[in-house]
Amino acid sequence: MPWNLDDDRPIYLQLMERIQHDIISGVYKPGDKIPSVRDLALDAAVNPNTMQKALSELERAGLVYSQRTSGRFITEDEKMIKKMKMELASEHIRHFFDQMHHLGFSDGETLEMIQETIRGNNNATNT
Amino acid sequence: MLGKLIKYDLKATAKVFLLLHIVYFIICLASRFLFMDRLDFNGDKDLLLAQIIVFSSAMLILFVLVNSGTWLLFTVRFYRNLFSKEGYLTWTLPASGVQHLWAKIISGWILYAVDVIVLSAGIVLLVTGQNVTDAYAAVAAEVTAEFGMPISTFGIYMFVLSFLSGICAVISSYFCVAAGQLFPSHRVIGAVAVYFITSACVQVLTMLILAASGHFSSDYFAGVTAGEGRSVVGYLFEGLWGSILLMFAIAAVQYAVMHFIMKKKINLI
Amino acid sequence: MRPILECQQLTKKYGNFFALSNLNIALDRGQIIGLLGPNGSGKTTLIKLINGLLVPSEGHIMINGMAPGVESKRIVSYLPDRNYLNSSMRVEELLSFYVDFYDNFSMERASKMLDALEIDRRARLHTLSKGTAEKVQLILVMSRDAELYVLDEPIGGVDPAARDYILQTILTNYSENASVLISTHLIAEIENVLDRVIFLQNGQISLNATVDEIRTEYGKSVDTLFREVFRC
Prior knowledge:
The complex is a heterotrimer of chains A (127), B (269) and C (232).
Chain A (H helix, E strand, L loop, with lengths): L10 H14 L12 H8 L3 H13 L3 E4 L3 E4 L3 H26 L3 H20 L1
Antiparallel strand pairs in A: 1-2
Helix pairs in contact in A: 1-3, 2-3
Chain B lengths: L1 H33 L10 H39 L3 H4 L6 H31 L2 H18 L3 H30 L6 H26 L5 H8 L6 H33 L5
Chain C lengths: L4 E10 L2 E11 L4 E5 L6 H8 L7 E6 L6 H6 E4 L11 H11 L5 H10 L13 H13 L5 E5 L7 H14 L5 E6 L11 E6 L2 E7 H8 L3 H8 L3
Parallel strand pairs in C: 3-7, 3-8, 5-6, 6-7
Antiparallel strand pairs in C: 1-2, 1-4, 8-9
Helix pairs in contact in C: 5-6
């Protein structure tokens, strides 16, 4: 999967977000071994030092841990991953509501529209 | 390192060099059997003379062509390998400028030496037919007296001399190319200009030395023309030692300048 | 550890024209550094000084603490901005040339890359397409275990696919204590692989910072910043 990096934000931040996302969405399972810095860097076509920095930051945040000889692994603390997932979800929701406010919808109207959309989706899949 | 550099110099020039000299040798071989061996030294003198004059002029042109071809080969190699775009590779090899210089001098001299050997072998091949040696035997004593030595000895002298002067020829052509590099926007014209300036300087220097050592005094020439025991070759050789010394002295100076350029003044465009 | 490259008051003059003036740089090991600047800003001059193809007018340049010379040439692997190889040579002849002269040349690495591209080793360089010939040059340069790779415009004039291949080749082959100095004016394509960029302007350094420093500080890509700084 291409990494699709933006060009106006620090690269290591984007790499962190991307790996974080892969962990939360289950591309990497808890306890999985992460590919080497060099391989990840090659895959993302970025500088290995930048990838190193992103992983170190993730390590500091406790999302990955390294074993001196055998490499880096995803944390086995599923509670933490779950918590992060929730955080990310609520961040998306907040963002979404902000945008709806900009368009001039109240929270109630927005909620109604959401429900309608879900119903529409269900009808579409049923038929 | 020096050995490797020389190896690649020779490799790069080998093809053209071999072709040139094989063609030369085949021409000599053909001339010997198709022309020289059929010369009749007892026949019509005028015809013989005309044949020999035409043939030796043609051969002379051939010698000059083969010799200049060789000269061009190592000079162009020197220029291309060090100062054209190929210089980007050559100058980033882990070798010093002085090593490059010596590699080029030695490989150039090897080409020059082999050239002289092949050219001489061709001449020997041309003049060693039975008819030629017989005809020469008749005048041998006279020629020996005039030259002050047998013609074969004279030939060997000439051979050794061209062999040795080869190194000076190699150095001075490299010198012109290297000095031409000091004029970054006109490298080739620079090299040609350096050539003319140095040859003019050498001639003036030669004149001065000859004048200083009294070679221009009227007594001296009187001695030669009156034939007071001096042979033509004797005169020739007397001047020759001087010019050989001068030649080597000039080559030494040119080498020193080049040594400096290769060490300190390399500025590739 | 001492810097792999150090310039102190480095100046190169051509007549009255200053191609570089009073440059001070120290580059660490293990980095990929972009040398950016418009044409005529002094990029190639600096690169030639590193490789001993030019002599400084003033100041010093040190590679691993040594002035350019036989020892520095052993550890610097240089890709010039032009076809510098004798184009009548065959690929295999070039390989043995590199093996002969550089003891840090890895035949294994070169073979692997040539095989991956299915390049015929019997082919003479001038019979290859321009893009393939450039790849051969890059393969030769990147197959050396050098401490400093100096690549002058490695991605100029090649198509996007070749560009990706070239960047991959650079990323795969440099080792952790080696540095790579890449000069280019095509920044967007290369920005993500760089640690640091040096902007050259009229022979002087106008910026020397890491890519993420620039993005954090200016909130824009190096490419965008470059276009602003060097707007005509």
